[in-house]
Amino acid sequence: MAELAAATQSPSVSSSSSGAEPSAPGGGGGSPGAKSCGSSCAVHDLIFWRDVKKTGFVFGTTLIMLLSLAAFSVISVVSYLILALLSVTISFRVYKSVIQAVQKSEEGHPFKAYLDVDITLSSEAFHNYMNAAMVHVNKALKLLIRLFLVEDLVDSLKLAVFMWLMTYVGAVFNGITLLILADLLVFSVPIVYEKYKTQIDHYVGIARDQTKSIVEKIQAKLPGIAKKKAE
User: What is the pTM (predicted TM-score) of this model?
Assistant: First the structure.
């Protein structure tokens, strides 16, 4: 009877142990997903105002910097920023030194923890960044060659129309103004779209259908252009 009881209990024990083992890879498998999310998830949370304080700080800082660049030269803005940062760090350094002298403490340098941080960039990491950048550079070069050498006439015409419209935009706005508008749009459009997603998708679908019909009519009238197969 004891052997029979042991035999009946052994499958349950083995099944529980086998059930416990896959949980480890599952738990480990979650970390690559979190790592692959990386900076894209941080940017997503930033522009969707998941952390109001963090997004407000980034948005306010970038907006103030762009407005400063619109009013002053780049050299002046950079100089004032460096002076402001140095004023904060020097004041804090002197303040801590006075406090340590009065209290006769030996806390040491207030920024020692940050001074000891290793910020050196290894050659391997540098080559990885360069390789990643070269992938995007090569794609951009291929795209420019396709557009300027008219591999696809419709795409080249789209670029020409876009550049023609940008001449009017450039006559009204300068580069800094466009960056300010882009900063405002980046921190406002995503959260508005998230709130009114259904209505916006409806109108965007109508505009897409209208644009597609116009492009098809233009393609039909232009000679020597083969119509693309509908997917």
Answer: 0.57
